[in-house]
Amino acid sequence: MATRAGTRHRFVTAALAAPAALWMLVFLVLPFVAMLVFAFGRRAPEGGYLPGFTFEQFLNLPARAAAFGNTLMLAPAGALLCLLVAYPVAYYLAVKAAPRHRLVLVSLIVVPFWTSLLVRTYAWMYILGSRGLPNLLSTIGLPDLRMLNTPGAVLVGIVYGYLPLMIMPIYVSLEKLDRRLLDASADLGARPVSTFLGITLPLSLPGVMTGVALVTILLLGEYLIPQLLGGGKVFFIGNALVDLFLQSRNWPFGSAIAVTLVLVVVVVLTVAMRIAWRFAGTRRVDLV
After folding, report:
1. SS3 state at 50
2. Contact yes or no for 77/85 (Cβ under 8 A)
3. What family name appears in the similarity comment (predicted)?
4. pLDDT of 286 above 80
5. Which of 94, 107, 197, 201 has the fewest Cβ atoms nearer than 10 Å?
């Protein structure tokens, strides 16, 4: 009877997991295998893929060093800026805000997601353009500030677009914080800064690492914000992929860059998990 029950349990588990496994196979594994095959091929004379086996595409990766450099520099910088802005907001929502107001405040954070990122980024193009912030500064007698088509404009768009993805994991982590620990720390005479550094921050670290990993991984493939706010002067890997696949039709080289990007994401995720486990001790840390 025990063996039959165990077999039935495994069958039910496999049946429940089958749709998700099939989805992952069709939309994740098979496309990556196709990219891997293309990466070792050659570009056909008319564009596209020509079967072959060569490392030429990977050896040509330095030709897109600027895109890799911008991505690997601005993506972590954008994630760090998001963290610096998001943590105080999440802390206020979870610890300081009245419970009856939290739902409204959290809803206000989520509301921007109801509008297309394209529309919101176009709004920032106007704000940072000549008729927006620079015009306002010149009107009140301050020096003209040109930000559009610069890395600074891209960082502004990144923080605005990805801030909710950083706030929510940190908020969830802080919302689960046992308030009795904070009260005990205060009763024992600890200063607020000591309480924060010794209790609040370590216990919220899983949410912090989740938010940082989530935002950084998404930024590594970002295309829209650099394209619009960078004005073609601040290229990310995503912009290079669009150029290679849709314009120059160099599918093997684009596939090699895509495979390299996936490997970079795996490395970033692995490092983030190791850091989270080291600082969070034995507490469970979910990054994905």
Report:
1. strand
2. no
3. Belongs to the binding-protein-dependent transport system permease family. CysTW subfamily.
4. no
5. 107
